[in-house]
Automatic annotation (TrEMBL):
Pfam families reported for this sequence: FAD_binding_3
Native species: Kribbella antiqua
Listed name of the protein: Anthraniloyl-CoA monooxygenase
UniProt cross-references to Gene3D superfamilies, sorted A to Z: 3.30.9.20, FAD/NAD(P)-binding domain
Keywords: Monooxygenase, NAD, Oxidoreductase
Molecular-function GO term, any one: monooxygenase activity
SUPFAM superfamilies for the chain: FAD/NAD(P)-binding domain
Alphabetized InterPro entries for the sequence: FAD-bd, FAD/NAD-bd_sf, PheA/TfdB_FAD_monoxygenase
Domain named FAD-binding: residues: 6-326
Amino acid sequence: MKLRSVDVLGGGPGGLYAARLLKLRHPHSRVRVFEQAEPASTFGFGVGLATRTQQNLEAADPETFAAIVANSWSHEMSMAVGGRQVSLALDNLIAIGRSTLLDVLRSHAADAGVEFSYNSRVAAAELDAELVIAADGVNSGTRDARAEVFGARIDVHKGLYLWAGADVALPRAVFAPVRTEYGTFVAHAYPYASDRSTFLIETDEETWRRAGFDVTTERLPFDASDEDALGYLGDAFAEHLHGHRLIGNRTRWLRFRTVSCERWHDGNVVLLGDAAHTAHYSIGSGTKLAMEGGIALDAAIADASDLEEALAEYERVRRPAVEHLQETAARSMSWWDSFPTRLDLPVEQLLVSYMTRAGKVSVDRFATSAADVVRTALAQYARCDVSEVDDGNRNEWVLRQPLGKSFGSRRVRASEIPGLRPVRVSLSDPWGSAADTLVKEIGADEAASGVLLTTAADTGSVLTMLDVAERIRRETDMLVVAQLDPSATDLAVGALVTERVDLVDLGGAA
C-alpha cells in the first residue's frame, strides 16, 4: 500500500528510524516526528548493538548503518571477579553514545525529507495522519490512554539499577561485582566513545536500603542525579574506573519495568518500541527492539493492501520474536539478580554460566569463540588439570566426570540412587514465593538423601527446573539430580559445568 501521511510521536531511536524508512519507501508522503523536548535535552549514555542487530540494520538501511558504525566504539568483553579478570576476544561488539545515535538518525531522517516538531506535546487523537506511530517510550501516554484496548501490563521488578557514565573509555566492557559493607553491587560497563563509558550498576533492595539510597532517592528532584550514590559507587568501583569518576545525567535508582501488550494497534494507531514492549537491559534490547520493530512495520506496510492488514501482519510477524526475546531477557534478569550467590565460582565458570544462562548458547558453542575460557572452566568443574580436558567431545567428557567417591559419572540412573525425593517442577517463577516455599520444604526433609527433579520436556520448563535446582543446591545440603530427555543434553551439560546440579539422568545407559 501507499501511505499519504505518517505522524510519529516520540523522537527516540525507534521513532526516528521508522520515520526514515517509511519516508524512503513512500517519498511523496508527509512524514512528521513530534518530540516533546528539544534535541539538545537528550540524556543517557551509551547504547550497545550486537552482531545480529548490526546485520539487520545494515540490510534495512546501509547508509544509516554506515554512519552509526563510523560514530561507534568497538570493544571486547570481560568479567572481573575475585581479583581476576578474563577477557573474551570478540570483534563484533560496538557501542555508540545515545545522543550521538539520535543525531545520526535525526540527520538521516531529515535528509530523507522527514519533518520535525519539537516541544510538541500532542496526543494521537489530535493527529489527522493516515498512520500514527506511538513511539513515546516506556511511559507512553498513547498506551496509557487506551490501556484497556491495548491490554497493557507493566510488571515492576524488585532489583534496582542506576544508569551512570564515566569520563574515560574503559579498555573493554566489564562485568564486575563489588562487595561492600552494605552488600554487593554489580557493574555492567562498556566504552562508547574515546572519553566515555556507560556504567550501569545494580543491586538488591536490601543492599540499597542499608546504603541509605532509599533516602537519597526519595529526596531527589526529578531532574537531578543522585550525587551521593555516584560518589559512593565511584569509590567502590575505583579499581575499574582507573582514577576517573562516575558522572550522572538525571541518574537515579530505578526498578526495571517489563511492558507487554495484548494488542499493538488500534485503528490507525500502532505502538512501537518501549511503548509496546520492553526487555531487560542485560541483553541490550531496548534500542534493538525499537529499531527492528521499525524495520518490520515498514515491510508489513509495503506488502499489505490496506492499513488494517498491514498492522495485523506487523503484529503477527513481529510478536513471536519480541515475546521470545522478553522470555530470554527475563531469565537473564533473574540470573543477574541472583549473581551475588555465585561469587564462590571461579571467573571462568561464571562466564560459562553467564553465556549459557538463558539456554541460547551451549558450552560447545561458547567454546568456538572462547576455547581457553571453556577449557579452564571444565577443569574447574572436574577439579582436574587443564591438560586433562577433552576438547574433542566435551559433552561426553563432562558427563563421565566423577562426583567425589560416591559416583563414578555425572550421568546416572536415578532409580538406582536410594532415598531421592521426587519433585515435579511446574513453577513459572523459580525465584518467586512458591519456589521459596518449595526450596525450604526440600531443605527441611531430613529423610531424603537428595532430590530428583523432573519437569515438562519444553526448553522453558527445563530452564526453570534448572534454576530451581541451582537454588536447592546452594540453599540446602541436598544432592540434586535432574531427570531430562536426551534432547536436553546441552542444557544438562551447561548445568553441570556451572554447578547448578550435581547429577543428571538422561535416560538410557548410565
